[in-house]
Amino acid sequence: MEDEILLIQAEESGERIDALLAHTVEGLSRSAAQRLLEEGYVLLHGQPVRKNYKCISGDCFEVCLPPPEDVELVPQDIPLAVAYEDGDLIVVNKPRGLVVHPAPGHPDGTLVNALLFHCGDSLSGIGGEKRPGIVHRIDKDTSGLLIVAKNDFAHQALSEQLKDRSLSRTYEAVVRGNLREDSGTVDRPIGRHPTDRKRMAVTEKNSRPAVTHWEVIARYRGYTHVRCHLETGRTHQIRVHMASIGHPLLGDFTYGAPSPDKGLEGQCLHARQLRFVHPRTGETVLIESELPEYFTQVLARLGEVIG
To answer: Is 141 a catalytic residue?
Structure first.
């Protein structure tokens, strides 16, 4: 695998280059950024940059990211909450805080490691070596239902349902503020944030169509409990769309408040329902999960329902 070359531009003066890299390059810690600098992988005007260099607005850095080291996937006896399982697929109820597949900073202890222990060799290979069986993903701090394919036949069929939007995914969330309407639709394209690679954004540049339908379940003073139905499945879609209309998810530091709220660190978002056509039988499968304890505790802290 070849090195990945990134061009990163400083937006303001005074920030240290290692800090800029850490919050711009997805999955890169500040210590890892310092190692890149020390080893000469970051250039400015063709010259290596010192790790304590303070950026000047407009500086354009060339960053060479070496290919990641191969990490052997190992089965790990991590408890799984199985909502449905047969010979073709398994639906798990992922707890909040569990990473779906290995990534920089999370080489193991993931849902994939747990699936390898539970399913053995019965996972499809379409998702690649690091993501066996994974048809779709949810964020680390999002809880709820996730489909995993046990063979390539099921994986292909479920992926087609994602593409033609016949695989239905419904979430529940708590957002900040009170929505005026009882329901609505956010139809805004989503792409990578132009200056922060860790974030997504509503943008016309290098984006893809994204549609989220929402409806109010209950209103509280300063917050709203909503149900969201995905018509598309972009990265961070619900989080980006609700923030774009002025109602970021409670606990979402990336797109909302900069500090904990109601005791929650990480978005209050739960994948509540899945509906799909079984790839083998052709029958419609509907799976629902209860709201997890962290979510019900948040609702209790919000006080009385006002509408």
So the answer is: no
